[in-house]
Amino acid sequence: MSWLDTIIQGILLGGLYALFAAGLSLVFGIMRLVNLAHGDLIVLAAFLVLLLVSALGLNPFAAAAVALPVMFALGWALQFLVLNRTLGNDILPPLLVTFGLSVVIQNGLLEGFSADSRRISVGALETASLKIGPVSIGAMPLLTFLSAVGVIVALNLVFYRTPLGRAFRATSDDSATAGLMGIRAERIFATATGLAMMVVTIAALYLGTRANFDPTMGPARLIYAFEAVIIGGLGSFWGTLAGGIIIGVAQTVGAAINPEWQILAGHIAFLLVLVVRPRGLFPRAVD
Amino acid sequence: MSDHLSPSWTISTRTGRSSASMLVILILVVLAIAAPLFVSRSVVQDLFFIMTMLVLTQCWNLLAGYAGLVSVGQQAFVGFGAYAMFAGVSLLGMDPMAAIMLGGLAALALSVPTAFFVFRLQGAYFAIGTWVIAEIVRLSLAQWKALGGGTGTSLPSGATRDMLGVRFVADLLGVRGPQATDIICYWLALLLAVVTIGSIYKLLRSKQGLGLAAVRDNREAARSVGVDPLLTKSFVYLVAALATGLTGALIYVQKARISPDAAFSVPDWTAYVIFIVVIGGIGTIEGPIIGVIVFYILRSLLADYGSWYLLILGLIGILIMLFAPRGLWGLFTDRTGFQLFPVRRILAGQPKTKDIRGSD
């Protein structure tokens, strides 16, 4: 059953795309900010993990745990010092500033790490697999998918079950009124971006361990992530997971037909969803 | 109430100083036409680069600065125009000059279905939507084996040497064939730049241009007085695609070699363009002109530093967007009030006191 195998691989790949997208979905849902540097921040985090692994000899998972607070601080500072200044009714400043940031990160990484392809080794886990009936599932893809589900569950818990999440939702709905209740929007936004960068770090761990990466691959990850967010519908984390899975399955099915069609098939699936449901499959927020 | 606007009032966009500077611009254009007579081949090539970037930046500025359409996918039209030109020359045996027109028309044709998709999207969605379309076009053309697939191809040898007018220019100026090709490409780029800037200026001073600015500043208010944003935006989008496609085709006649990665390059055709407009001043005709000059100087200074160049350009872009969002030209006009291409409507004239008394 090669088709069953193709679809399962696609679903697992979708987990990786959902991880790329979850941070974007969080930031976009709260402050309507599209961070065009999101993909490059994933690659930046992957280089940070790589650096920790090679310099300190850490296990990749431990290195990612060390990178988590670093990336949180980076995201917090980025939002508080730079991106908050761009928020407003005009869409130009956030788009152009984050586009500039994307180019700066990409070329900074090119200077620092050269254009060579890198990979973070996880030893025996790379080749380990589970055999379930006729299908064999790689350990890393499965771990990626489970992490994606874990991240989505965690984000939903934070968003709907904690005071922080209440502040997120309040600021998203009406930041002026939230301000009257003592919520400081600029700090809430900074915390949201910090959280998004923690998700980015988890995504970077799997980006770096599953395949080769290099400084220029950020924009393509941004596009996959954004497609997943739009397919899923604004403000729905589970929708984002569904969107990632749709892109993932479309890519593996496309690749099964002709290896050159892999990425094209994902983009075309996105366009088809857009034509049928312009607001995505599970829209929650209105915008 | 309308009686207060007695016939002696006139609405004008012209200012005294701008009329004087029009004369200066005219002289500059004449000098630019004559430039190949005085300067070396490499300078002509540099001028060609400046003119093509000027067209691309004016088009992007028209979209983002006036129509509120922030596209990150204009490379779709550069690449598609270039590929259509290559198809015309290599597969149909057309003259490169005719194939450039074909490239422009092909980009225009591509912009119709593209507009159908991306106009369903707003703001940031629109930006990424245009990018996805550009990726789809790039990946699709990489499958076109007759034009070299993913690795690309070159124009047939001699195609640009036999281009319309090359022999004439070569004999007239006493230069060799390849140099004559460069000169013709430069003149075409100059023509394209002048026509583009002239048309954009004319558009912005017209009723449609006023409507465009109104939609950009307040969509609901503009709609309430009967301005149809979709129609005007679609028109602008199609025209920008045509000019961008013509430029793409022209650039690749001069380069004579194409590959999907180069023709659809985000840094070359979108990142540079965005930074030029932002640094010069978004939402003005003068901004991209200043931006291209600054960009050219930076490029000459930093050419040997590879990726540092883009990094510095990105940093300047971010700083300008944060602290001087109207760019260098905005800083300049804030201090001097000078406008080269004034589009703001100014009420001029004297109220006739007699008329006002009569209407009251």
Automatic annotation (TrEMBL), chain A:
* Protein name per its UniProtKB record: Branched-chain amino acid ABC transporter permease
Q: Name one Pfam family in it.
A: BPD_transp_2
Quote the subcellular location field of this record.
Cell membrane
Q: Which PANTHER family match?
A: AMINO ACID ABC TRANSPORTER PERMEASE PROTEIN, BRANCHED-CHAIN AMINO ACID TRANSPORT SYSTEM PERMEASE PROTEIN LIVH
UniProt entry keywords in alphabetical sequence: Amino-acid transport, Cell membrane, Membrane, Transmembrane, Transmembrane helix, Transport
Q: Which InterPro entries match?
A: ABC_transp_permease, BCAA_transport_permease
Where mainly found? membrane
Annotated membrane topology is:
Multi-pass membrane protein
- GO process terms (BP): amino acid transport
Record flagged with keyword Transit peptide: no
The reply to whether Cytoplasm figures as a keyword in the UniProt entry is no
| Family affiliation | Belongs to the binding-protein-dependent transport system permease family. LivHM subfamily.
* Gene Ontology cellular-component terms listed: plasma membrane
Highest rank taxon of the organism? Bacteria
Q: Where are the transmembrane segments?
A: 6-29, 41-58, 64-83, 95-115, 135-159, 188-208, 228-249, 261-278
What does UniProt give as the signal peptide span? Answer: none
A GO molecular function assigned to this protein is: transmembrane transporter activity
